[in-house]
Amino acid sequence: MLREDDRAQSLQIGAILLFGILIIGLSIFQTVVVPQENGRVEFNGYAETTEDLVTFRNDILTAGTQGGQQAESLKTGVRYPPRAVLINPGPPVGSVGTTPAENVTISGVVAVSGEPRNVQGVWNTSERGAQNYSTRSLVFTPAYNEITVPSVELSGDGAYRLTGNGPLALTERRAIVGNTITLVTVDGDLRTGSLTSSVAASPASVATRSVTVTGDRGADFTVTLPVPGNDTEAAAQAWNDSAAATTLDRNPNVVSREVNGSRVDVTLDGSRTYTLRLARVVVHDKADSGVDTDTDPQYLVPLTSNGTEVATSGSRDVTVEVRDRYNNPLGGVDVDFTANGGDIDGSSTVTTDADGTATVAFNISDGTDTANVTAEIVDEGVAPYNSTTIAVIRQGAGGDDGGDGGGINPAGGNDLVLQSATLVDSNGNPTQNDNKIDAVWLSFKNFDSSREKNITRAKLSFYSVDAQSGSRDPSPDSATLGLVGSGSTVSLNTGGDFENTSYVFSPSQTRTFEMEFYENTNAGGSEFTPQRGDFYVLNVFIDIDGDGTGDASATYFIAPR
């Protein structure tokens, strides 16, 4: 009897068992190992994207402070390595987009008196109110399959990882460092999501100018900043409690920081001065060539000083600069020039160049000692700061009259020379604080080493307030003139007659006079506060031979500083 042969069945069973083990192994690899390996790929991709975002944040700063378009390629998704048998999920793709606009707010500041008059007018927040500058952030929102990681948010102020325990700073803060305030605002409507996103930062207003500011009347002032997060008070509180915010406490100029709605108020010591720089940058898809980076003109500043001399034959260039609301020069803006006491060579309407400047050639009229050239932005800007007037003077003989002290701004070998015109407070201390200025001190020196000189008559011929500040009084109607410490003064009406005086200078002597100004004639009414940028003309007669009569006349064009 033959026995059955079951060896084939054993082979089949073994094969089935091996196949089952293989399937189980592949299943374990698919469900455990593949996710782990893909998770590592995703984490590495997230780390790389974070580095790219930090680099792009620096690009935003570069575009805003140095100019030039900056671009980066952001790895907003990842590809998994190919697998022969096992299956990968589809490549995860995150997104990059701008947040809704919020305001950076500056309140309680004024420009110091050393700034041009229109700058002072624009940066007088007690008169014009707080200044708001719209800005956005750029947020990378990851969408990985295997790992859960926080979003990354960047702005002109910094880059942050938005963790559950509050924002974690990835860069140093740049908005307030020491006594420098640099606010790079971000604009643009960017939405992109792909494995790789090419983004660019294009400058709209480059911070090539700065303004020196301080607290209004020395009081503390506030810079209110948007913070990373979800535009809520809770997000603001989380940021204010974070290590990034506490770094502000190491700045001795920072008085306090407090949550204000979805933003944070940073209060600064208003008794100190600060350098304020503003910029605007537009973020966009690099392939987008139709980005609007235009800004509007705001105000004018003179680049030609009051008191500039114009030759009696020939012309003199007069130049102004147009600035936008970020205080930076703006090209392509039409400026109208008008003149009083002379005429303009060529067209009176000039378009600003790439540096924001407009220039005309001015000819002074025969017989005119003082002329005015007024520039105004055509149909744009913020009145009255979109206009400025520059007082120019006819070039005189100086001191080339034999050294007897005559002429315009005499400066010859034996002249009576005006050496300085200084804005001082009530104690005679030099000051640039408009709220403390009390008078102008004039220092004259008799450069004649052998003869006395005596100012026998004086006249205040002209006074020009530099800029049409709506919040400032018109030119003064009178002034008093006297030697410092003497207690005796003479009243001079603006544009009035000569008044008798007796101010004797010994040979080589220097004497200092004080001039105080008044709104009404004969030193009446309220006191008028002179400021840097103002300009006035003082005429005198000088006795040289000691007979008490004026032997020579002199005209001093004075721009107090």
Topology of this structure?
Layout: H1 7-65, E1 70-74, E2 95-98, E3 102-107, E4 109-111, H2 117-122, H3 125-128, E5 131-135, E6 138-141, E7 152-154, E8 159-163, E9 166-169, E10 176-177, E11 180-187, E12 191-192, E13 197-205, E14 211-215, E15 221-226, H4 233-240, H5 243-246, E16 254-260, E17 263-268, E18 273-285, E19 297-302, E20 308-310, E21 316-324, E22 334-340, E23 342-345, E24 349-351, E25 357-364, E26 370-377, E27 387-394, E28 407-408, E29 416-424, E30 439-446, E31 453-464, E32 478-483, E33 490-493, E34 499-505, E35 510-520, E36 524-528, E37 535-543, E38 552-558
Parallel strand pairs: 11-18, 20-27, 28-38
Antiparallel strand pairs: 1-13, 2-6, 2-12, 3-5, 3-15, 4-14, 6-7, 7-8, 8-9, 10-11, 13-18, 14-18, 15-17, 16-17, 19-21, 21-25, 22-24, 22-26, 23-25, 26-27, 29-30, 30-35, 31-34, 31-37, 32-33, 32-35, 35-36, 37-38
**Low-confidence regions:** 397-405
Q: Which range does the strand content fall in?
A: 35-45%
Calculate Rg over CA atoms.
Answer: 36 Å
The number of domains: 3
Q: What separation lies between the terminal Cα atoms? A: 132 Å
Structural class: mainly beta
Helix content: 10-25%
Question: Which outline best applies?
Answer: elongated
Tally of contiguous helical segments: 5
Describe the biggest sheet? 7 strands, mixed
- Rounded mean pLDDT score: 87
Structure summary, number of beta strands? 38
Overview of the molecule:
The protein is mostly beta strands and 561 residues long. The protein has three domains: 230 residues, no CATH class; 97 residues, Immunoglobulins (Immunoglobulin-like, Sandwich), CATH 2.60.40.10; 165 residues, Immunoglobulin-like, CATH 2.60.40. Helix content is 14%, strand content 42%. It has five helices and 38 strands.
